[in-house]
Amino acid sequence: MGRKRPERTARRANERAARQLVRDREKLAALSTGGSKEHPIHVDSAAVVEVRVRSLACPQCAGNYRLIDHRAPASGLREVDVKCDQCGAPRTLWFKLVTSEPN
Questions:
Q1: Given its phi and psi angles, is residue 45 left (phi above 0), alpha (psi -120 to 50 degrees) or beta?
Q2: Which of 5, 22, 59, 89 is at 20 to 30 A from 67, Cα to Cα?
Q3: How close are the terminal C-alpha atoms of the chain, in Å?
Q4: How many helices (H) and strands (E) does the chain have?
């Protein structure tokens, strides 16, 4: 049999842990507000969607987002594709237009 190489074993364990951390952060981002169609970020107007996107941080590296595409798949719902400027992670954010009119 071969002999164990402790440096390689430790490096591979660290790489596996880093990959698992990325998967966990992605799962958390999908469950957070704006991460899915079921949990959109509420905004008053479509005009503020891009402003809100610029104020959000990437869950992987805390970098800023760059807006790629902005769609309206349904009335009052906005689907926004973004990409992190720092790590390049793509993400889709969801927004829902809500009115804040007085009763």
A1: beta
A2: 22
A3: 77
A4: 2, 4
